[in-house]
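re: the backbone from monday

yeah here it is again, tokenized this time
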């Protein structure tokens, strides 16, 4: 479902799906968002006072079938330096409220999804994306208020409850460390032997030295690796937040709350051998490096 929605939003701005997942931050609200365009423009200018953002002509898209009585989603493109960002204001739920298949494993996140009534989003649309996540965070920080119930990054499958420290870090452009590292595998399902995921695994292994070199130099942040975790006949694919790499052994803490296996818990110290590696990613200058399985998971829209 999330992959399908990502494609829908990308097409909204007239662009084609690229090999990169859509860079976006979604703000779920417990009221119907009703920000007029001038309020959005003011928020963008507060967020980027020295960048002289240019507001481009906006548009609308109709409400989805599950919200037939809702008004349209308003869109407002903004040019910042060499990039274009899209702001969306939707007076309807982000997903069909009747659909419980995407609930996930974090009760507080499930509660936010169930009680939200509308959403806003800041998306990177086109141009130079070197600092896309930083800019998105700065703009979104000016849209968060007491009615914000959850922040969600679809391309990374991560979410966070709003908090003053998070908002301050968003204004500074460094905010992803606040987000619960939750693999997109938990929301977009593909069989373990899917050819695209197998290709992603091979690519991650063949380019492993890129990750280790960057980690050794600390040329980035949020260094994470994905491994399978087994319990009897169950296997779950989860991310580890890396603390050290010694030879062919990776050590760190489990970044997922397991949804299938029960012999390990989020935050637990773990170690794995590199030959089991399925994926790796880290953030550099506001962009994702690696994340090959995420690209595979988002490469096709869900049926």
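seq for it, each position gets an aa:
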């Amino acid at each position: 479902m999330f992959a399908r929605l990502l494609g829908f939003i990308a097409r909204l701005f007239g662009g084609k799906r690229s090999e990169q997942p859509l860079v976006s931050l979604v703000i779920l609200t417990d009221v119907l968002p009703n920000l007029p365009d001038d309020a959005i423009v003011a928020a963008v200018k507060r967020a980027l006072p020295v960048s002289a953002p240019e507001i481009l002509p906006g548009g609308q898209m109709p409400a989805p079938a599950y919200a037939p009585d809702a008004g349209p989603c308003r869109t407002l493109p903004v040019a910042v330096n060499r990039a274009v960002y899209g702001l969306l204001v939707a007076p309807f739920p982000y997903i069909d409220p009747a659909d419980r298949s995407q609930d996930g494993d974090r009760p507080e996140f499930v509660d936010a999804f169930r009680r939200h009534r509308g959403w806003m989003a800041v998306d990177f649309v086109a141009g130079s994306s070197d600092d896309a996540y930083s800019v998105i965070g700065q703009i979104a920080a000016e849209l968060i208020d007491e009615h914000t119930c959850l922040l969600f990054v679809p391309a990374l499958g991560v979410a966070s409850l709003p908090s003053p420290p998070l908002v301050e870090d968003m204004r500074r452009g460094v905010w992803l460390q606040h987000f619960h590292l939750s693999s997109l595998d938990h929301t977009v399902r593909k069989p373990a032997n899917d050819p695209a995921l197998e290709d992603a695994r091979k690519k991650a292994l063949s380019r492993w030295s890129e990750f280790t070199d960057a980690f050794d130099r600390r040329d980035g942040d949020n260094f994470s690796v994905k491994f399978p975790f087994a319990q009897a006949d169950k296997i779950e694919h989860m991310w580890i937040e890396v603390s050290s790499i010694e030879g062919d052994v990776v050590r760190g803490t489990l970044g997922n709350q397991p949804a299938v296996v029960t012999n390990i818990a989020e935050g637990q110290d773990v170690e794995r051998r590199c030959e089991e590696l399925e994926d790796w990613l880290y953030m550099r200058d506001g962009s994702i490096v690696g994340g090959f399985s995420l690209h595979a998971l988002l490469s096709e829209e869900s049926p």
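The chain has a mean pLDDT of 80. The radius of gyration is 19 Å.
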